[in-house]
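Subject — a protein and its fold

Tokens — whole-number codes for backbone shape
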Amino acid sequence: MSVERAILLIVGVVVLASVLLAVYHSPYWLWLTGLMGAHLIQASVTGICPVVMTLKRMGLPTRSGFA
């Protein structure tokens, strides 16, 4: 698994989990979905993402796009 695919998996799990928690527990969990969206916008503009840095330190290879 590459860094690019791992980050897609992590973001997908967090968003899906927060939506399910909002449906079954409390609507306040939608704040997590909103924060994740804001972070994705910030990371696309600045190129800085702590999760990507962590995955690279763990030794996951990087690939260009969806190659």
Notes: The helical segments are 3-24, 30-46, 50-57. Residues 14 and 33 are 8 Å apart (CA to CA).
